[in-house]
UniProtKB/TrEMBL annotation:
Localisation: Cell outer membrane
InterPro entries, per database record: Beta-barrel_TonB_sf (IPR036942), CarboxyPept-like_regulatory (IPR008969), Plug_dom (IPR012910), Plug_dom_sf (IPR037066), TonB-dep_OMP_SusC/RagA (IPR023996), TonB-dep_OMP_SusC/RagA_CS (IPR023997), TonB-dep_rcpt-like (IPR039426)
UniProt keyword Ion transport, yes or no: no
Any coiled-coil regions, as ranges: none
Stored PROSITE patterns: TONB_DEPENDENT_REC_3
Pfam families recorded: CarbopepD_reg_2, Plug
Keywords: Cell outer membrane, Membrane, Transmembrane, Transmembrane beta strand, Transport
Homology family: Belongs to the TonB-dependent receptor family.
Entry annotated with the keyword Transmembrane: yes
Ranges where the TonB-dependent receptor plug domain occurs: 124-230
Membrane topology: Multi-pass membrane protein
Protein name: TonB-linked SusC/RagA family outer membrane protein
The organism's place on the tree of life at top rank: Bacteria
Species of the source: Sediminitomix flava
Length: 1039
């Protein structure tokens, strides 16, 4: 500062010139008048962002976050124009006043909602495709850490299913049904214009809006990645005005509100006597002797619920944001910390997000920058912990997970001793995954001429994940002091992966209006690259729990106790896009686009493709003949679209053969055999493999009534999936081994559906506002073509529960049915008497030869006397017939309440948890099993876990999975503006919120919302991590 003054004092001419300039400026300012004031909304709350313009000029300002503004004017009788989106424009004459208090009036008729589309944005009334939108206001009403959860029930046609209650598990999102049966079904995520490889896990506190491109015409601008739809996420940006600091914080707890009924000790003893009688006719007295000889303690009544479950598991979220700026530079910084303890033991999730955005404007340049960083740590619950618990008998000892050794686990070689040891392994297992994620975005726009811009954008991301799973050293001894041989072994599993991607896009945009015509054009060229590297290592038999590292485990390569591998793969994409949009007086709308993509995932002869689209709209309400209805009927628009997208989201190098080194070759004579290393071709190449193609037609209608208070949208669509990749079984003559397949473009699939959404918004003059919205979506999926004969292709992983044979897979692909349909053996009740048994055995002398009274009866559909794959019949699927959403909100004088219901009607669930607990004899129902005293029972007699009564491929475990759920409920109170100011705040709000509070269902398991991948395991309850209810209290502050 001293250098500044010395410099000017030494240059007197400049110094006095500066003084003169300041004096003249003061004189000029003296001729102006300073006008100040406050702008509030219809209920008296401060309204930020209102444009205040000196009428007839471009001079103006905008209200700050407290609704305040200041503006200098040359005339104390000048006129000011106040305008804000969704409010009526007001022109106020000063009439000598220097202070104003302005209350804006809502005008839904003039509300021009802006919708983000691929590579641009558009007014909703100009939209020709099918696009759904959720804004930040709606997201705030749904306190959740997962953006997928926030979308459930909000947009018709967007199916959101909780994959698990495991902390940090993201929801599965599908748009208009399945997009593939072998590749990924997830939509493409685009954050601030940059495509992401997978779910970006953006904190909802960072999001300004979410726009979902549902129809192919809208998604086709993303070419080979748009088959599953596109989710466009726009993060928060700053606005010119006073700096705003906002805090949103909540704390709460979670609780599992359902369970699976397992037996206590009294019920178990009764069931035990029945089962012994059913198994080998053992009398009750002999059963008692057997129990006494095994030294079981029947004073126990062990229930593992208290050990497995973490009641009142805490959850918290804290978000702090700072935003503001000037006309030429705005900024926004958002930091969020989320922490969730699991409702099951040894599970948790911690995440910290930071995102900084800035916008700089200078003459013809507009530059946007964004930087996001995420650190997360996730502890996975032990794999299938609940299934392991279903084996545990109530007479077994209580468990203390802190023990490193257990004495007297059970009698020698007993199943109970093994179950106890395996249960302890599960409880002591730890599985942590640490992740660091960085993403960046830089966009530069240069205005070449009026309406003509050049835009260049570069962005990408980097991810580094490390996962360590430890099975600690643990020993259990039986009553005789012998070491129990358990299924699990101590060991260390290390996995690391890095992902990186970058994208560079350059585009020219031209817009022109003339004589009622409006033309917008886009020409774009893009480059993208994705790189993935991973390493996995595993070793068994730890020396000590104090050294849980790979080097502290024993080596035994021949026994397979050490395995490891790594992957290095990459793919790149080149795209060119052209789009033309035409609008005549807001009445007739047309959009035409074509994208040409080239992907390195395919061979040179098959890597290029063109994805065209066309869409149009007719705003009938803009026609002159409609004006007589416009006071009541505000919007009447018809839309139609037809487009093509592609899907390249499957494994890399599908067009290449795979050579695998294995130690499978036997050398040496009898008694001197040894295994030698050799190479074999394990995957055959298909150089003609190409992307799957989606062709979709969409017809829609938009209606609005009563000054746009009541809106209604309907869409019908028909989607054909062509050239779908199916695994085709290779002939044994190829030498590829049994069950080897090659991937071919040989399948077709169809999705067709109906989507409805409506909303009514009422703004009362007395400050009572309320709204109601509803969505309905029905999607019908059908596999229309498969290779070869019309046989069933069973989906991997579709067994009801682990531990059952491979033939117990239940989900299939078959022409004429939905993908993932259940094909099951039909049951026909329980054999109730000897006469019925004789008839059953005569009908199936082979299969039923060992059947007894009290067993399940299976239906021989083809009458060949056996139960085979040919006897399986269609029994529905895990896909719901339709989905509904209901959103309610109301506000009055600072109080507000919002409620969201979601329902999925018609889907089936295979209750694998029930099947598993039946198999191990612990389910409460077995008290009511068939017996000579209960011959009318429909529960088969328990005859041991490997009996045919408990096979997973039957419809005995099939239940109606329909449910309706109170997804979110929030009640809040916002202090009046004066009270907030007295606290030094511009906003003070407190609220209570709950999630998954009520579930209405007939399903007898933990939860009907099951399935991890959307296809293979959809509708199959494998002892999934239960979805819990959460209860939260929060506060929102703005400074």
């Amino acid at each position: 500062m001293m250098h500044f003054f010395k410099h000017h004092l030494l240059h007197c001419k400049s110094f006095w010139g500066t003084i003169l300039l300041v004096f003249l400026t003061i004189q000029l300012q003296a001729q102006n008048y300073f006008i100040s004031g406050t702008v509030v909304d219809e209920i008296g709350q401060p309204l930020p962002g209102v444009n205040v313009i000196l009428l007839g000029t471009s001079k103006g300002t905008s209200s700050d976050f407290n609704g305040k503004f200041t503006l200098s004017v040359p005339d104390k009788n000048a006129k000011l124009e106040f305008s804000s989106v969704g409010h009526k424009k007001q022109i106020i004459s000063l009439d000598g006043r220097t202070k104003l208090n302005i209350q804006m009036e809502v005008d839904l008729k003039t509300l021009e909602e802006i919708v983000v589309i691929g590579y641009g944005e558009i007014k909703k009334k100009e939209l020709t495709g099918s696009v759904g939108r959720v804004d930040s206001e709606t997201l705030i009403q749904t306190p959740t850490a997962d953006l997928g959860t926030a979308l459930q029930g909000q947009i018709a046609g967007v199916n959101v299913q909780a994959s698990s209650g495991d902390p940090g598990a993201p929801a599965n999102i599908q748009i208009r049904g399945l997009s593939s049966v072998t590749g990924a079904n997830a939509p493409l995520f685009v954050v601030d214009g940059i495509p992401y490889d997978g779910n970006p896990r953006v904190s909802p506190n960072e999001i300004e809006s979410i726009d979902v491109l549902k129809d192919a015409a809208s998604a086709s601008v993303y070419g080979t990645r748009g088959a599953g739809g596109v989710i466009l996420i726009t993060t928060k940006s700053g606005k010119a005005g006073q700096m705003k600091v906002a805090l949103d914080s909540y704390y709460g707890f979670q609780k599992i509100t359902s369970d699976l009924p397992l037996m206590g000790i009294e019920d178990y003893l009764y069931s035990f006597f029945l089962s012994k009688s059913h198994l080998n006719g053992t009398p009750i007295d002999d059963s008692w002797t057997q129990l006494e000889n095994n030294r079981y303690d029947f004073t126990n009544n062990t229930n593992l619920e208290g050990v497995l479950q973490n009641d009142y598991a805490p959850v918290q979220n804290h978000s702090l944001s700072v935003s503001g700026g000037k006309d030429d530079l705005t900024y926004s910084i958002v930091g969020t910390y989320f922490q969730q303890e699991g409702t099951l033991i040894n599970s948790s999730y911690d995440r910290m997000n930071v995102r900084a955005n800035a916008t700089f404007k200078k003459k013809k340049w507009t530059i946007n920058t964004g930087l996001g960083f995420r650190i997360e740590e996730r502890q996975y619950a032990p794999y299938q912990l609940l299934l392991e618990a279903f084996k545990y008998k109530p007479f077994q000892r209580e468990i203390d997970p802190s023990q490193s050794t257990i004495e007297d686990a059970g009698s020698a070689g007993s199943t109970e001793a093994v179950n106890l040891g395996n249960m302890m392994y599960k409880l002591k297992q730890t599985d942590f995954k640490d992740g660091n994620h960085l993403n960046y975005n830089l966009r530069a726009q240069y205005r070449i001429a009026k309406g003509f811009n050049f835009v260049s954008r570069v962005g990408g991301g980097f991810t580094d994940n490390t996962r360590v799973r430890i099975n600690p050293l643990f020993r259990a001894y039986d009553f005789e002091g012998e070491l129990v041989q358990m299924q699990n072994r101590s060991g260390v599993y290390n996995e690391s992966e890095t992902r990186s991607n970058w994208a560079w896009e350059n585009s020219f945009n031209y817009q022109k209006k003339f004589n009622g015509h409006q033309i917008k054009t886009l020409a774009l060229f893009s480059l993208e690259e994705y790189v993935f590297t991973s390493f996995f290592g595993r070793k068994y038999d730890l020396i000590s729990n104090d050294l849980p590292v790979l080097n502290a485990a024993t080596l035994d390569p021949d026994a397979g106790s050490r395995t490891g591998w790594n992957q290095d793969k990459s793919n790149s994409l080149v795209g060119m896009l052209g789009r033309l949009q035409y609008d005549y007086k807001g009445r007739y709308l047309l959009s035409v686009s074509a994208r040409r993509d080239g992907s390195s995932r395919f061979s040179e002869d098959a890597r290029w493709g063109i994805f065209p689209s066309i869409s149009g709209g007719w705003n009938i309400s803009e026609e002159s003949f409609f004006k007589g209805l416009s006071d009541v009927w505000n919007v009447f628009k018809i839309r139609a679209s037809h487009g093509t997208t592609g899907n390249q989201n499957f494994l890399d190098y599908s067009n290449a053969a795979t050579i695998t080194l294995t130690k499978d070759y036997v050398y040496g004579g009898l008694g001197n055999e040894s295994l030698a290393l050799g190479a074999t071709q394990t995957k055959f190449a298909n150089p003609n493999v190409q992307w799957e193609t989606t062709i979709q037609s969409n017809l829609g209608i938009d209606l609005a009534f009563f000054n746009n208070k009541l809106t209604f949208t309907a869409d019908i669509y028909d989607t054909n999936k062509e050239d779908m990749l199916f695994p085709v079984l290779l002939a044994p003559s190829t030498g590829a081994g049994s069950n080897s397949t090659v991937v071919l473009n040989v399948g077709n699939m169809n999705n067709r559906g109906l989507e409805l959404s409506t909303n009514y918004r009422h703004i009362g003059e007395n400050g009572f506002n309320w709204s109601i919205g509803a969505t309905y979506a029905k999607n019908q999926n059908t596999v229309t073509k498969m290779s070869g004969s019309n046989k069933m292709a069973f989906l991997d992983g579709s067994t009801v529960a682990d531990g059952v044979p491979n033939e117990d897979k239940v989900s299939v692909l078959r022409e004429g049915y939905e993908a993932g349909a259940f094909f099951l053996i039909e049951t026909d009740g329980v054999i109730s008497d000897e006469e019925e048994l004789q008839a059953y055995q005569e009908a199936m002398p082979g299969f039923a030869s060992t059947a007894k009274v009290g067993d399940l009866k299976y239906v021989d559909q083809d009458g060949d006397g056996e139960i085979t794959i040919e006897d399986r019949v269609y029994k529905g699927s895990g896909m719901p017939d339709f989905e509904v959403g209901l959103n309610l909100s109301a506000g009055y004088k600072g109080f507000d309440i919002s409620m969201q219901w979601y329902g999925a009607i018609g889907g089936e669930v295979l209750n694998g948890s029930k099947a598993y607990s039946y198999k191990y004899g612990t389910h409460q129902d077995l008290v009511y099993q068939w017996s000579s005293a209960n011959t009318a029972s429909n529960i088969p007699a328990y005859r041991g876990r490997d009996h045919e009564n408990y096979r997973g491929y039957t419809d005995y475990w099939l239940e109606d999975g329909s449910f309706a759920r109170l997804r979110n409920l929030s009640i809040g109170y916002t202090l009046p503006n004066n009270a907030s100011k007295a606290l030094g705040l511009s906003k003070f709000k407190v609220y209570l919120a709950g999630q998954n509070l009520i579930t209405i269902t007939n399903y007898s398991g933990f939860d009907p919302e099951v399935g991890n991948d959307g296809l293979n395991t959809r509708g199959i309850d494998k002892g999934n991590y239960p979805i819990s209810a959460s209860y939260r209290a929060g506060i929102q502050l703005e400074f």
